[in-house]
Amino acid sequence: MSIMTVVCLKSATRNIKLGVARCKGGSSQDVYDALEKIIDEYDAWSSIKMILCDTTSVNTGRSNGVVVRIQRAMVGKGLEMPQYIGCQHHILDRILKHVLDFYVSKTTTKPSLNYKFIDGLLENYEELQTEYKAETEMDVDENPGWRDDFKFLYELCKAFQHCKKHAALPVIKWRKLPSLHSARWNSRAIYTLIAYFLLPSWRSVLELPACFIAEKCQEAWFSVQTFKETTYDNPLLGITKLGCASALKGLNTQWSTVKQGTISA
Length: 265
Fold this sequence. Notes:
Elements: E1 3-10, E2 15-23, H1 28-41, E3 50-53, H2 57-60, H3 66-76, E4 83-86, H4 88-103, H5 116-131, H6 148-166, H7 187-198, H8 203-221, H9 229-242, H10 245-260
Helix pairs in contact: 4-8, 4-10, 5-7, 6-7, 6-8, 7-8, 8-9, 9-10
């Protein structure tokens, strides 16, 4: 089965869509071959200064990932090696998975199975909404333009912050549950915050993960995706407080890539 991906060249002032790359499969070689064909067609190698993508092994494998293949090709052509910038959203999602695994026990290690609190929401979401007893109106906070799942996560973070500040459950506009597809980076965060409010029996377990999401990670999630020390320091402080070694390792490894703008080939 072929995989389609859009290839763009983007600068501060322009975003040029070069075309759609048809990959024969999902391997790094397949993806690179399709990208190479389009880059050659437009003679665009010298225009590439930075590569932004998610942190999957296909893209970021140290020996044969797509990024390394592109970097090698450019160096071989006598061009400057482009910077690699890992997507902050995907990095945060991977870190959050470590945090949830640390606090929420699972009966299996299979990644396809949900945490029990997610199953509880999927089975009884409508009923749980009617049982929720709000105690206070939220402060008016204008949404800066987020949409869909991003908007829901933004509202839930604000609701949690309000709850902690006023020690009362706020009025929340419940929206459609997001897809649990692995590519949806923010789904774990959304389900965790919903469960904190709608599943009282889980509240003590999810207290610290929810705090980590809404107070330590939210700046990075809702930043302009430009690296700032504070967007690193806040998750670092939160993970250190949680004592989750695997999340700390992931942050130090992946976010250092964001800071340095490259990976080791």
